[in-house]
Amino acid sequence: MDKTTVFHRLYSAGLSIIREYPLLIATLAGVVLGLLLIIIHVSNFFSYLSDRPETCMNCHIMGTQYATWMHSAHREVTTCNDCHVPQDNIVKKYMFKAMDGLRHSYVFTLRAEPQAIMIKKQGERAVSDNCKRCHELLFLSPALKNENLYNVDTSEGRLCWHCHRETPHGSLRSLSSNPYARVPTTESMIPKWLVDTLKKEQAKQSNRK
């Protein structure tokens, strides 16, 4: 049996199910679409297409990282993505963001984040490349030619932050190291119209008492 025949049979079976249970299929499609729209809204999906540092605060475990960046010299010239995401081309950039975002979502949803968040190997490579991209002239210095600097191909050598340990997040980066940092808060997942309606109902009940 060739692929065309299999596809034709599956297509015919699908059409027959739709014709036999149109209301059920429409209901299921509506439920799936509704859940998808809720997930998009709750996760602030479209914010991840931007380069705004506030997007990283969608996961409120990143408060320490945001606060240390906000009080660093890098704040004036870089965002989170400028350092942590490949800048070679737009396809590579968004592929990296998608894969990293899926892993972050999985860890955050299951509450499996470690107390001290450490960068992964692929993240090290991206940050190292971006250090060299921004500080290109420094790497032309004769003083650095004899240094055992990080090699992308062999994953050996010293990374920039092995010496520049406080740049920009500091050496203390656990979830509890900066609990009172002033950071952006995420918007409420409850729609404004529903919040206003609930407030009006509460006001009515208070007036009756």
Determine the mean pLDDT: 82
Query: How many H/I helices?
Result: 8
CATH superfamily of the largest domain: Di-heme elbow motif domain
Instruction: Note the run of SSEs as H and E.
Output: HHHHHHHH
Sheet with most strands:
none
Shape: flat
- The CATH architecture name of the largest domain reads Orthogonal Bundle
Radius of gyration over all CA atoms, rounded = 25 Å
* CATH fold type of the largest domain: Multiheme cytochrome fold
Query: What is the domain total for the residues?
Result: 2
Head-to-tail CA distance between termini: 75 Å
Query: What is the CATH class name of the largest domain?
Result: Mainly Alpha
The counted number of beta strands is 0
Structural class, by secondary structure, is mainly alpha
- Percent in strands: under 5%
Unreliable stretches (pLDDT < 50, length at least 5) are none
Which range best describes the helical content: under 10%, 10-25%, 25-40%, 40-55%, 55-70% or over 70%?
40-55%
Describe the model.
- The chain has helices spanning 3-20, 22-42, 63-70, 80-84, 90-109, 121-134, 142-145, 192-208.
- With 209 residues, it is mainly alpha-helical.
- It folds into 2 domains: 1-42; 60-193, Multiheme cytochrome fold (Orthogonal Bundle).
- It is flat, with a radius of gyration of 25 Å.
- The mean pLDDT is 82.
